[in-house]
């Protein structure tokens, strides 16, 4: 791939673990803040507590054991993007939000593949040998299995297992894609959080620590991902810190949407 123009992106690096509703509100705010001029934001973050997130259109009672989550201190949020159930815990989460169709084109699949290829550059810097996946079975596409049961087309596999789960929302030339990269394996908790019977859950995931055979920390993983992404897209990443006014707007989105039972349980605008 050849990107001719050298550009600057905003980099948001949230090293402090944050509540799930705040994390989703930040991504939503970034998406809403995109204007007509081409802009791109890259964000990395992590989670204050184990958090189950479900896709925008999913029926919560079919995919999440809400009672189990409430009994065991696991938060539940609904994303603005599609996709399937993800348990966010001991992971690196990324979001990439852009209105730059010169780089990402105007189609979901093209931008999805480009982001996967950029993430793969970061994984290779870690010493991994990632591959792009083929299409998953139709039964997975139509069903309620968790995100890490199968890789979707052009998602990333390592050692035959899924290492990134991503989802995207697109409106015209604007899109946001965010995804989960496990640092440590927590398959048992994922199965407990899912509303499916344990024998129905066929999780095919691998964490960075498993793949590399050593404990991988957030800062180390993010450093390599930032290097790979900036190198792949040939961009400079400029640190971005939210102003007090921006934080107030994010807090309003959090209150009205992602901390709201109406939004989480299905009465969405």
Q: What's the order of the H and E elements?
A: EHEEHHEEEHHEHEEEEHHHEHH
Sheet with most strands: 6 strands, mixed
Q: Looking at this structure, what is the CATH superfamily?
A: Bira Bifunctional Protein, Domain 2
Shape: globular
Name the strands of the widest sheet in spatial order. 10-11-6-2-1-12
CATH architecture tag: 2-Layer Sandwich
User: Low-confidence parts, pLDDT < 50 over ≥5 residues?
Assistant: 139-144, 146-150
Q: What is the count of helical runs?
A: 11
Q: What is the domain total for the residues?
A: 1
Q: In percent, how helical is the residue content? A: 25-40%
Q: Which CATH C-level class is it?
A: Alpha Beta
Oligomer: single chain
Q: Structural class, from secondary structure content?
A: alpha/beta
Give a count of the beta strands, DSSP E runs of length 2 or more.
12
Query: Which range does the strand content fall in?
Result: 15-25%
Residue-averaged pLDDT: 88
> Radius of gyration from the CA trace?
17 Å
CATH topology: BirA Bifunctional Protein, domain 2
What distance separates the N and C termini?
39 Å
